[in-house]
Amino acid sequence: MRFLVFLGATTALGATINHTTRLSTNSVQTSWGATCTEQLVEISVNRTTDAEFTTQENGAASGGYDLEVLYAFADRQVLVSNTYNVSTRLCVPGPQHTNASRANTVQLFVHRATFDKLMWDIPIQPERYSWTKKMNEAGFATFSLDLPGTGNSSYPEPLLEANTGAYVSVVHQILGLLRAGSITSKAYTTIVYTGYFIGGIIGTSLSNTYPSDVDALILLAIAWDISWAYPAVLAGLEGPAADIDPARWGHLSPLYMAHSTRASRIAGCFYGAYDPEVAEWDWNTKATNSIGEAMSFSFHLVDAPDYTGPVFLGLGNNDATFCAKRCGSQPYALYDKFPSASAWDINVYPDTGHSILYHYSGAEAMQDALGFLDAAGL
Prior knowledge:
- This protein is α/β, with parallel strands linked by helices.
- About 30% of the residues lie in helices and about 20% in strands.
- The chain contains 13 helices and 13 strands.
- The strands form 2 sheets. A 10-stranded mixed β-sheet has the order 1-2-3-4-6-5-7-8-12-13. It has a 3-stranded antiparallel β-sheet with strand order 9-10-11.
- Strand 7, helix 5 and strand 8 (about 215-220) form a beta-alpha-beta unit.
- Helix 4 crosses helix 5 (about 200-210).
- The longest helix has 17 residues, at about 165-180.
- It starts with a strand and ends with a helix.
- Residues about 1-25 have low confidence and may be disordered.
């Protein structure tokens, strides 16, 4: 059975949320007693640039591709107006884990590039690797999503639409809907934003443009020195996803990409102390990355001078994307990037690569994040 709830909300960007589709058959109970419900949320975004960009089916800008696209990315613009179905998952703690002080708090999870919302709740040893389980058992509701171009969400044109500027607009609207109670059974008054790589970068951009959107920030696998970022992305040996796995992605534009080999996936995501079984599961469930996302993400690594909540940073000391051999002083740029934050909590995990949660140190990172939230009174 399908229920349609029509909304008339409008965001600061002028993007209108048309409606929410709730799939009543998608509710399940987890082994730890939480109730998880999946639904599609239909979000419309409007372009914010004066330049007009149009798309065509092969994933290239029609009428010619030029540097105006790059300039628009650099200005953190939304390039094209369109509507997307965003796949979401809400997990509400069971009665045995109810915490009255967190009854109106939700953690929003935004995944990293070439991953989707599965990353927050992998089925292998969930007591060690599931961020969802850890936070539900601490009394937090959790809300994860697939960004457009990933997982079960819409796959829009991969250059002009599936990019970081559009993602910021989509996530900003999701946050407003969570506060309004429009896509959940209740309105959440407190939101903890948890973002991983691209998700973390979206969090920094949101905190710059909408500093009151969230009450606390947990940023994972990001730093602000991008000297290694693009060489590391190239070292992942990504190719057209349609060629790499035609059964899953044969219908996609060649500008959607994926890691081409296990070795390149491991080089980009893992280092040191991790379980090979987890690395194999990661390879078998890998997701896509768009050319627009890859071209635009660095422009959203900005400061957030007006954000006044607490901020947590977790980074693997051997993160190939930001730290290469070791992180050194890079993580401590957090103080300069969030100068008005109420608290800073910086954590660097040894013998750990880019995918922190998939390493043995992931359990420590989860516990550190809970300590951060406890200290912040959340």
